[in-house]
Amino acid sequence: MLLTYAVVPAFLLASAAAVAIPTEAGPGSIRLLGRRTNGQRELYKRADGSFDLSFLKAESTSVRNKYQQHVNNVHAMAVSLESLLAAVPLPLKKRASGNVALTDDIQQGQDIEYTGPFSIGTPSQDLWVPVKKIAGSAGYLHTASDSTYKNTATPFSIQYGSGAVSGTLASDTVSIGGLSVASQYFGAVTTESSQFNGDPAAGILGLAFSSIAETNKPTIIENLISAGKLTSKWEVQANAPVVGGKAVGTAFNAAIDTGTTLIYVPTAVAKAIYAAIPGSAVDTSDSGGGSTFYRYPCSSTTTVALTFAGSSNTYAINAADFNLGTYSGSNCVGGIVGMDVQDANGNNFAIVGEQAARNLCDVGRD
After folding, report:
1. pLDDT tens digits for range 282-297
2. Which end of the chain has the lower number of beta carbons within 10 A, N or C?
């Protein structure tokens, strides 16, 4: 059965994607998770368009806790996966790719999500989909006609920053971009909170490591790699940022994570970026989680862009995405936040959230 779900860009360390399923068997679509709005505005902005510092405090603390808690497990697993890939026959490595065409869904001027095809069942981070009709949901998986669906009866639930779901743990055959996994565990959801009402995607698909999944079960990406069907990078090399057309600062490693809203870079990189934007200044307010944010003139036209090793493309951050809202008169808050988070090797790396991911969702197609 073809369903609709949300996926994240190809380079992931910890992220989530959402899943939508048509109410009847037939073409569905996949979506990149972008649940960071409150009606017609982003959660980091107040109704008057000003920056909400409480959001930054909450997310900064959450991001630091998430990555520091799991990064050792993630990198240890990444090493084992690299060893596994070394043993995969070369013909499999050459075939280890899949392409999914995505459509950008824009509502009230907000870049909400990306949709494309996904299938689960036979005849055809966490994954969950509804398995019964839920009011306001985009659809559900018809398990009665699904010969590979198995329900474990183990309770399943997830609480997000904006919404919650519950049900039981189940397994089924899951496919994306022509790549399939048999007996993939997922949440068979029977209850959704109202935040999911009217969403074109009916669920969420996690593409990162099981160490940060509620179920602790192997994710679809881990299973595809283990089966030799996919090769993947979990941390990418970013070149020095480009500000106003000139490279500033130094290169750094980065995790692209649509489960995070803002862009967190090493503090030294953030300092170099804003030093190249005339009129910028660090703010001394307590932003939580050991993060540092900057204000800059709202009238600034200086562009900020990211580039990645192995690619000649430059990914400029849209001015509307970079501007988190007004703050202290004619100043606005920049969407790049300074925060030092270390990987298992003790090196600082960046967490590139939704603010940038929506501008570079094609990065992982090479």
Report:
1. 988 777 678 899 999 9
2. C
